[in-house]
Design goal:
Blueprint (H helix, E strand, L loop, with lengths): L2 H15 L2 H5 L3 H12 L8 H12 L8 E5 L7 H5 L4 E5 L3 H13 L5 E4 L13 E7 L7 H9 L1 E10 L14 H6 L12 H9 L5 E14 H12 L9 H11 L1 E2 L2 E16 L2
Parallel strand pairs: 1-2, 1-4, 2-3, 4-5
Antiparallel strand pairs: 5-8, 6-8, 7-8
Length: about 280
């Protein structure tokens, strides 16, 4: 390990230690099990990131029926499903049984059977001598750490894709308000910068890789009746360790105050950084 790579590993580890998300969800599966039911209507509704990855792989001739793929943090299958149509086999890995059940139903309903699902934690799972032609991790909090990136590289025989947040400013969205996280938890669910693409980009460069960076602005827009929003967010926050029944009136009041003509609008924009690089 050279001085530069040691520097970036140290900085990234320090950021990961400060993650408020990890401190809140020491068992990350709790968060994703609570989110699974509504994921495709909220965060999963943005397809620009998926299209960007598929276009990138296509341009490099990597959508190959002989290649096998590992999709880490596969969720409800945003990438697993389209990749399965072009590649030999896709292994979807996620720690959430609820996410995995939805993915399994989707794959079978669309006639795809060239996949398997691993309900495992990527960082602790022993792959033995197994490798994959393509390894993908998109916005997976469990991989906001240098050890996870280096493990990705160790099991990849051809091409890696790592997607995080580009910390550069994004266009203004809704007016800033106290979020429910602040009101209920007393803090945000920030990853404290450990999800920023700056760390993996510079670490990869320092150890001799030549990553390409593709930026994609993703926007999530979800409109739902007030009562549906109250139900969805109550189910989510009641799954948080240490949740209190006193949170319900706070959630109800917040949704009501931030609704318009009977609907609550959940809108967010984020600039993603897609890192892609050859592992050969």
């Amino acid at each position: 390990m050279n001085t530069s790579s040691a520097h970036w590993i140290s900085l990234w580890k320090d950021a990961a230690k400060q993650s408020l998300f990890r401190k809140t969800f020491t068992d990350e599966s709790i968060c994703w099990n609570a989110s699974a039911k509504y994921y495709d209507q909220t965060m999963g509704s943005s397809t620009k990131r998926v299209s960007a990855v598929m276009d990138l792989l296509s341009a490099k001739g990597l959508l190959n029926h002989e290649y096998n793929v590992l999709d880490i943090g596969s969720g409800t299958g945003s990438y697993t499903l389209p990749l399965s149509r072009f590649c030999s086999h896709v292994t979807a890995m996620d720690i959430s049984d609820s996410m995995n059940r939805i993915l399994h139903q989707k794959m079978h309903s669309q006639g795809q059977n060239n996949f398997d699902i691993l309900q495992e934690d990527f960082c602790s799972y022993d792959f033995g001598s197994q490798t994959f032609d393509i390894v993908l991790a998109s916005l997976a909090p469990g991989l906001y750490h240098p050890d996870a990136l280096l493990k990705m590289i160790s099991i990849c025989s051809r091409f890696c894709i790592y997607i995080g947040i580009d910390p550069r400013p994004t266009p203004a969205g809704q007016p800033a308000v106290d979020s429910l996280n602040d009101l209920l938890l007393g803090h945000s669910l920030s990853h404290s910068g450990s999800n920023h693409i700056t760390y993996p980009l510079n670490l990869l460069r320092s150890i001799g890789y030549k990553p390409e960076l593709t930026n994609v602005l993703c926007t999530w827009n979800h409109k739902e009746p007030i009562n549906d929003a109250i139900l969805r967010l109550t189910e989510y926050y009641m799954a948080v360790p240490g949740a209190s029944e006193t949170w319900y009136p706070i959630i109800k009041s917040y949704i009501t105050e931030h609704s318009d003509h009977g609907y609550y609008y959940d809108t967010s924009s984020v600039q993603l950084g897609i890192l892609s690089f050859n592992c050969q």
